[in-house]
Design goal:
Elements lengths: L1 H41 L5 H26 L3 H36 L4
Helix pairs in contact: 1-2, 2-3
Length: 116
């Protein structure tokens, strides 16, 4: 039983570190995307919405990854329900942002006449 407990503790520590890294990267990407969005707004860049949505989607993907990792270490049913709700919410947000990106790209193609 000692080896099992040791491996379980090791897994818990590795997952905790990975969760922190993924959360940090997700927040960092969202902050950078927001700053880029502000710069695009000031410069009147017509692709501001597309750039901002792409950055937000990427940041949410990292945060979603951390929540999925969190399911590895949950112990009771209330934690599972909370993590599942967070995953569902972030997945829905990611889906909506990807839909927005698709719409923005289609609008951009209409305006340029299909030219890349």
């Amino acid at each position: 039983m000692e080896l099992y407990e040791l491996l379980e503790q090791l897994l818990t520590h590795v997952v905790d570190i990975a969760i922190l890294v993924f959360e940090f990267v997700g927040v960092f990407v969202i902050i950078i995307s927001g700053c880029r969005g502000i710069m695009d707004y000031v410069r009147h860049n017509p692709e501001i919405r597309l750039n901002l949505a792409t950055g937000m989607a990427l940041g949410l993907e990292f945060k979603l990854g951390s929540e999925i990792l969190r399911t590895v270490i949950v112990r009771d049913l209330s934690e599972v329900a909370t993590v599942a709700a967070i995953i569902a919410l972030r997945a829905a947000l990611t889906f909506l942002i990807h839909w927005e990106i698709k719409v923005e790209k289609a609008d951009e193609e209409k305006q340029t006449g299909g030219r890349s």
